Amino acid sequence: MGELSPSDRRSQALAQLDARTWDLVVIGGGISGAGVAQQAARRGWKVLLIEQRDFAWGTSSRSSKLVHGGLRYLKEGDIKTTLHSVRERDRLLREAPELIEPQSFLFADCAGRKPGRRLFQLGLRVYDLMAGHRSLGWANLATTRTLAPGLAPPGMRGSMVFQDAKTDDARLVWRVLSEAQRDGALVLNYLAARGLQLDAGRVCGITVQDVTTGQPHQVRAKTVVNATGAWADRLRGAVGGKPLLRPLRGSHLVVPFWRLPVAQSISLMHPRDGRPVFLYPWEGATLIGTTDLDHREDLDVEASITQAEVDYLIEAVNDQFPAAALRATDVSACYAGVRPVVDDGSGTASQAARDHVVLDESGLITLTGGKLTTFRLMAQDALALAAVHVGQPFARDDAVMFTPAGALNPRWSPSVRHRLAARYGYRAGELSLHASEADLQTIPGTNTLWLELAVAARHEAVVHLDDLLLRRTRLGILLPRGGLDHLARIRALCEPHLDWDDAQWQAEIDRYRALIAAHYRLPGPIQEAPIP
Q1: CA pair distance 282, 287, nearest whole angstrom
Q2: Range of the domain at 307
Q3: In this predicted model, which residue has the larger pLDDT, 509 or 407?
Q4: Which of 200, 278, 292, 414 has the fewest CB atoms lying closer than 10 Å?
Q5: If we measure between CA atoms, which residue out of 326, 324, 320 comes closest to residue 108?
Q6: Contacts by 274-279, CB closer than 8 A, 24 or more apart
Q7: pTM
Q8: Looking at residue 123, what is its pLDDT?
Q9: Do residues 235 and 136 share a domain?
Q10: Cα(419)–Cα(417) distance, rounded to whole angstroms?
Q11: Taking a C-beta distance cutoff of 8 angstroms, is the pair 418, 98 a contact?
């Protein structure tokens, strides 16, 4: 018997929803929900994770892509958050070294600008003590110009250099979900929670609906974890929870690497307001971010960058690289996400605390806020409360999260093997077993392999074209026009694995084109950047 098609696998999974009582249902398919599902499944719990859109659709595919120790929190005196972040960053670097990659950061020391060299170096010493290793620390003017050619903010006299890490946030979510599935969790996208079921005032299940067909399902559960990020307050209303969150928008620009080539991550305080901004090499492009603004628009509509944010980020780049003279026409893509920040009454968005919160409200466990880097600790905090309702023992531990990648074809280049291990972890060998030389070529202008498109279509629960091009791969934000220039080959690779006829393909293309135009390109009429 042949392998099931993606639609048949989905039908089989949906049939399981009503057939059992789940120990734990996780609502939300971002990094927080994925972490909860993985940590619970590893302990032998019966776990269901549902996501009303696509996995990592929200904040977890629109972050700054940094796995960092939170150096900025030292300035605010938050030693605990920094310590936890540094340790979790180093854990991720050890356990998933291909996906979580070291990144050198450089911060120009400029006369008359804060923070000064002494204060920054003091922070770095504390940071290094927490991490257990030393950064380069200080680079004189000549070394700085070698490390970052073209860097020339006013009054530069050297720089501070330190190490953190970066990742592909959406792929990190998928890797964590894959580990959860390996341990028995059932994970489903496009399955929306429509209401909580209560018994004597306590949560005992949820009503869900298949977004693709409209079919409802009644799901029994011992407890439910609300890991819906910026949307968490909505579900809490059913159990009397009061609003908790202050949604903040962070927007980013993507420019071709040839237009702004940097080997280091350039970190800076914006000359206008002193907020942290950075730019760094990512996936064959240069990423610039981020803003930090109260997001007052409808959360059900994808966030979009504003012209004021575009101007703000370009101003920051040109302050550091005046000869680059970056313009809006150089931007190949942009994206914006909404962070679930707990409202602590801070006056400005950038001062709002980034701590996570875990609440038990009548058996609804809400996990929200926090940082990408510390998702494992956040998940264990949620499970500590859930265990009471599940009736399962729970103890915090430091068990390994990621199963190492198996052996790959030694004839392939180190860069290809590195890429496959990063994307697929323990499944890398299986998913690339029959790859041809053409499959392992990179898509021009990116680090993405053509193979990744077919693998995603066949194995990674792709329901819409944007699932494929914005989250399973990142072509939608790495290439001009959302990657549509490669549509013919994309379709040829994926059509054998997707149950789409000609009409559905056209509908998906139209839908995707509108999405890119509305949310992943700059506001207003834009001239396309020239191709070198």
Answers
A1: 6
A2: 102-165+246-342
A3: 509
A4: 200
A5: 320
A6: 274/114, 275/350, 276/72, 277/313, 277/316, 278/64, 278/66, 278/105, 279/317, 279/320
A7: 0.95
A8: 72
A9: no
A10: 5
A11: yes
